[in-house]
């Protein structure tokens, strides 16, 4: 029966996002856990990734209209119909279940709660329930997220990527703190300081320096600040370029780019491999992370692992992840950010040195995360609390 200690290895189903949803960081977390879980835990756990085939119902039909609305409808159908049906057919085949993304926590309604863990990257998905004035949403959306939140609260283990997020979860009162487990994200092997002679940058710099931003363009990433800071910095270096990787400009961003006259100095790319992305980090003059909120901030550790200097928002999560290896500026303060960027460009020696960046980032590894997660499930099988785990 699930939950009992066995002499053979315990089986763990790793429930991942649909890749078609386009969240590379969530895909990466699942990929790394599948790869490292068994070896990191002396093969006492056997992991299998579970995710049904994404079914396109609306986006496969010829239609002239709001394609994004159709895409979102397909996403919801697959999350709330396809995945639960698939899971009900497989739920008796595993000892434990690990949900890689808390925004899929409605799946826990179809699983035995005493065998399930959830990785909670942040509480943004539940903001419309926890702080409705800060994130006003229509009633149907809040009803949907209430079901997700109710599923989340059924978990026996809740993993979080930083202590700052763990503190926020504990303060919310959603989860018994004894069930919280800190498991930092890691750095993939492609992110190293060694320049590659076989990998070319996917854009043309014409020999000019460039600033780099990696991530989506959702509101908390503060792309508005990024663009204003870049415009201010170009007053000192007109040839400077900005490379944005992974996002999709909103109409507001495009209007801002046009208003600031930045169109010819900005390039946006998506779908890069980790190998190519690593080369972008290595060549960047400075990596900017102006977010107002983060759960971990993978681009921070990826950039540091490539030896790149980083300027990030002064928020608890990024302080925890970047430490003394990163420069910080106040959230949303364009003047302060611009001053820091100009100083970094003029006096790079004032930045944390390369050796310090590499030494700091060496503490983050996917192997360590897999060890912590695996140990928590093995202790759960033995009837022990995760808080007794010396790795947490």
Would you give an account of this structure?
The chain is an alpha/beta fold. The chain folds into two domains: 10-186 and 365-388, Glycogen Phosphorylase B (Rossmann fold, 3-Layer(aba) Sandwich); 210-361, 3-Layer(aba) Sandwich (Rossmann fold). It is 39% helix and 13% strand. It is built from 13 helices and twelve strands. The protein has helices spanning 24-40, 67-90, 127-130, 139-152, 163-172, 223-234, 251-260, 274-283, 298-305, 316-322, 334-346, 354-361, 366-381, and strands at residues 10-15, 45-50, 96-99, 116-119, 157-160, 180-182, 210-214, 241-245, 266-269, 286-289, 310-313, 327-329. Strands 2-1-3-4-5-6 form a six-stranded parallel β-sheet. A six-stranded parallel β-sheet has the order 9-8-7-10-11-12, sandwiched between helices. Strand 1, helix 1 (24-40) and strand 2 form a beta-alpha-beta unit. Helix 1 (24-40) packs across helix 13. It starts with 9 loop residues before the first strand and ends in an 11-residue tail after the last helix.
Characteristic terms for this protein:
Rossmann fold; alpha/beta; globular; 2 domains; 392 residues; 6-stranded parallel beta sheet
Instruction: State the helix count.
Output: 13
Spans where pLDDT lies below 50 across 5 or more residues: 1-7, 388-392
The coarse overall form would be globular
Largest sheet: 6 strands, parallel
H/E order of the elements?
EHEHEEHHEHEEHEHEHEHEHEHHH
Query: Within the CATH hierarchy, at the fold level, what is the topology of the largest domain?
Result: Rossmann fold
The CATH architecture classification of the largest domain is 3-Layer(aba) Sandwich
CATH class of the largest domain: Alpha Beta
Query: How many strand elements?
Result: 12
CATH homologous superfamily of the largest domain, by name?
A: Glycogen Phosphorylase B
Number of domains: 2
Strand content: 5-15%
Strand order of the largest sheet: 2-1-3-4-5-6
What's the helical proportion of residues? 25-40%
Mean pLDDT: 93
């Amino acid at each position: 029966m699930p939950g009992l200690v066995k002499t053979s290895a315990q089986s763990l189903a790793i429930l991942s996002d649909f890749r078609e949803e386009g969240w590379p960081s969530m895909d990466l977390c699942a990929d790394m856990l599948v790869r490292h879980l068994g070896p990191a835990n002396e093969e006492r756990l056997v992991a299998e990734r579970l995710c049904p085939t994404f079914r396109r119902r609306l986006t496969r039909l010829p239609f002239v209209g709001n394609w994004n609305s159709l895409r979102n409808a397909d996403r919801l159908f697959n999350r709330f119909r396809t995945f639960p049906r698939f899971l009900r057919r497989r739920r008796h085949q595993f000892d434990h279940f690990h949900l890689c993304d808390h925004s899929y926590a409605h799946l826990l309604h179809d699983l035995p709660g005493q065998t399930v863990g959830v990785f909670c990257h942040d509480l943004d998905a539940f903001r419309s329930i926890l702080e409705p004035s800060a994130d006003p949403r229509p009633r149907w959306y809040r009803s949907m997220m209430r079901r997700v939140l109710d599923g989340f609260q059924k978990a026996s283990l809740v993993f979080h990527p930083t202590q700052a997020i763990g503190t926020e979860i504990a303060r919310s009162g959603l989860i018994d703190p004894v069930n919280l487990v800190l498991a930092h994200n890691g750095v993939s092997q492609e992110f190293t300081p060694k320049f590659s002679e076989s990998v070319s940058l996917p854009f043309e710099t014409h020999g000019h320096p460039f600033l780099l931003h990696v991530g989506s363009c959702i509101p908390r990433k503060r792309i508005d600040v990024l663009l204003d800071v870049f415009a201010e910095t170009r007053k000192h270096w007109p040839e400077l370029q900005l490379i944005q990787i992974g996002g999709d400009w909103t109409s507001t961003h495009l209007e801002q780019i046009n208003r600031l006259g930045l169109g010819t100095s900005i390039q946006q790319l998506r779908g890069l491999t980790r190998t190519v992305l690593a080369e972008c980090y290595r060549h960047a003059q400075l990596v900017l992370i102006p977010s107002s909120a983060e759960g971990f901030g993978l681009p921070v550790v990826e950039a540091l692992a490539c030896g790149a200097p980083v300027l990030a928002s002064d928020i608890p999560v990024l302080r925890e992840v970047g430490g003394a290896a990163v420069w910080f500026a106040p959230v949303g303060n364009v003047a302060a950010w611009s001053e820091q960027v100009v100083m970094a460009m003029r006096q790079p020696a004032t930045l944390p040195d390369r050796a310090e960046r590499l030494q700091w980032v060496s503490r983050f590894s996917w192997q360590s995360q897999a060890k912590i997660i695996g140990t928590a499930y093995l202790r759960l099988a033995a009837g022990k609390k995760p808080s007794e785990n010396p790795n947490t």
